[in-house]
Every structure is written in structure tokens, then in C-alpha cells.
Description:
Blueprint: H1 2-20, H2 23-42
Amino acid sequence: MTKKIGFVIALTTMMGLAACNTVGGAGKDLKSAGSAVSDAASK
């Protein structure tokens, strides 16, 4: 069970990093995700 969870986390992380392509892109993605959470929380 623990190996399965670790695999899913690793796979998700790799897919997320592949989608960002660059460190700058990752920063922008994190910033937009943070903005979305903040907007949802303020409603």
C-alpha cells in the first residue's frame, strides 16, 4: 500500500514538472494556483 501511494505521488510530481517545462513556468503555475485558492477562499 505504501509503495502504491509513493508511486502515485512520484508520478503526479513528474507529470506536474513536465507540464511546467521550466523553473519560471513552475513559479507562474504555483502563483496562479495560489491566486485561485485565494479567490475561492474570499468568496
